[in-house]
Design goal:
The chain is mainly α. The chain has 5 helices and no strands. The radius of gyration is 21 Å and the shape is extended.
């Protein structure tokens, strides 16, 4: 018998399982004390992982970057607000533009934009 390559496609019931898991998670997030518990647990996990110099899962890396810009007391509040927001709603044009501007900012603390990403100003003709 010839060994066959492993099939890496999603199993047939994976989409259904994901929908069920998402529905259960959303219903749990509607309950206040469970939502607070989840937020505190997630923040504690991220802090302990950083303290032990462990890498965070890729889904949490971006979240950690965004939350690290906030003062520690506001992080739980911001995360809870993000969990309550509906992911189906598309953000407004203003919010999308603000997010793209934040991604272009320098990371070395000097302020301003990263080199090469500054907006081009139209040249004046004299």
């Amino acid at each position: 018998m010839v060994p066959m390559a492993r099939d890496k496609s999603a199993p047939e019931g994976a989409g259904k399982k994901r929908r069920i898991r998402t529905a259960v998670f959303r219903s749990i997030m509607r309950v206040g004390f469970l939502r607070h518990f989840y937020v505190r647990r997630l923040l504690r996990f991220m802090e302990k992982s950083k303290a032990k110099r462990r890498t965070l899962p890729p889904e949490l890396v971006r979240l950690d970057q965004m939350l690290s810009r906030l003062p520690p007391p506001k992080r739980a509040e911001a995360l809870e607000t993000a969990l309550l927001a509906s992911p189906d709603e598309t953000p407004s044009r203003e919010m999308r533009r603000a997010a793209s501007r934040q991604e272009r900012l320098r990371g070395d603390g000097r302020g301003g934009y990263r080199p090469g990403t500054a907006r081009e100003k139209p040249r004046r003709r004299s």
